[in-house]
Write a structure and sequence with these properties.
The protein has 653 residues and is of the alpha+beta class. It has 26 helices and eleven strands. This is Serine/threonine-protein kinase.
Amino acid sequence: MTAAAGTSRDLASLVGTVLDGTYRLDQLIGEGGMGAVFRGRHVIMMRDVAIKVLHPDFNRDPELVRRFDREAQSAARLDHPNCIHVSAYGTTEDGMRYLVMQLLEGVELADLLTEPTAPKRVVEWSIQILRGLEHAHGQGVIHRDLKPQNVFLTRDQHGNQLLKLVDFGIAKLVGSDAGDPLTRAGMVFGTPQYMSPEQALGMEIDPRADLYAVGILMFQMLTGRLPFNHEDAIALIRMQVSTETPQLPDNVPQELAAIVYRLLSKQREQRFPDARTVRAALERYRSNMSHKSRGDTSDPLLDIGGAATTDTASRPLPEALRPRQIDFVESVLQTDRWSRRTWFKALIAGCVVLALASAGLIYWLLFTGPPAPAGGAPPAAESPAEAAPSKAGETAGATGGPGPSAMSQTSGPSELELAAIDDLIKQGKLDEAQTQIDALLERHPGHSQLVWRDARQLAKRATMHESAVRRYGEVLKKSPDLERDLGFIDEVDALLRKRPYTDAAIALAIDLGAAGVPILVHYINDAKPWATWAQRRQIRDALPADAAAQVDLVLNRRRDLEQYAEAPDPCAAALPALQAIQAEPLADYIPALKAAQPPAVPAGAPANPACDQAAALLATVRTAYAGRFPEAFAPVKPVKKKPAKKTVKKKRK
């Protein structure tokens, strides 16, 4: 391949060239921001392939090169009918990267989602998507960008529909991501409409993030629309984190709707544990539906555009959807009908449950003490040993002893009390909520759940912003694990993005860890000059290295120039700002440059050579900018005032 062709900006001119003497580019079939996809030919094996190339101009961009390499590394691990197959990857002598893939004939799933899809077809497509994810996750690959544009519909050698997962450009490779900026916590990658809450917040993800995307896809296929969508990306992310999933239409079978809702759980612990479990649930649902169809022998893989009947089943949820371990579910529900063995297993399970319940009742009667005397009479005097709470009893309660109600009497408010407060806050009855919170705090001083609700009701009050911020900070210090609670993070995020931004707000965002990085970036890039030099320095020092690319350098250099007098050492603070402004002349710096005063040594302080250096550099930069932007530095011409007209008073006759 000639150097001229390799460096040409017109990718179409590459048609006809041969990469590394093996792959001929025959036809440009797709072009994007990073490069293009060609229909190609293996000139030795005489086989058609698809060849993806990175645009030569982007070979100097380390992040895009890493993303292109990531797609090759991810796809190379995969060998499954429902995943795109990559056969070769390399770099030409001219430095152009290319990826050789299986040539697919068909359409993207996105082209078929213009209207609701029949539930039967949704199940078939979803099972294939989950098979591909099951294989990818087993190979340590998390897709992270599952969406209709990355699911391709083609046909296998028998003419049946075949779905393939494509574009693993931002996939996460489990176990090999140390130091990789594409996989660090705090960085957000993917498409917001299909992001899981934890992915949208920049938290560490696992395969369950892909399962959330499957839930979005199934909802979109069943309804013809997205469950969450907004023009503002920040608002959309907030919807993914906290907005309840909309109801599916009534024509969607109850069992199928339950699977979708569970996939879309905000807390990943409440979703299915893995792709295999979801696939098993869908296959079991499909099997049940095939029995109900009374001998329907039609091909389950429907033709694209073909008509399909809509299932309207409304029976109770199958056992597979209940929150039990998959091993138990599979051992009991291997068939659709109850066999003698199944009845026997169910009988044994019932006996075990009854025995455990009896044991718990006996334990409660023997070890929880006598009931309180009637009429409010004081109990008999106890010895100090009896009056002290039992450590053994607490441990037993945590591992299957007294139930939650018994524990709540000694460790904190009950669930009913907390739910009552939550209802009052939702209804806007903040004074009533605060009264109940204060009363419970007297009984349970400093309890984190009560302090959290106190912070929540304060956040609802327009004049209590600062108090709410401090209260949320207290909650986080009492329960550091809340930095991984999506509900808590969403509340704090919404509060901290409201003005005023204070020292307490900055401190709370820092304490949130990775979840607070987007808030800190929002603060440091705010166009309004509310932050002092010290506040901005605190924020920049708290940001991780991989968040530096999100900082608006031009804005912050201008702020540095405007605020260096506030720094503990103004001369040392002025030098790097002036050096950066000198190295990259931009008109944005002109107002601050014209208003800047030469840094001076405070009165009584010893001489500081840095001050002389900064003053000289300021003069040099101003001179250079005056030559580059003469109109901005031209002297302002004084405006001549017109002489006032003399008023002549007329004499009265």
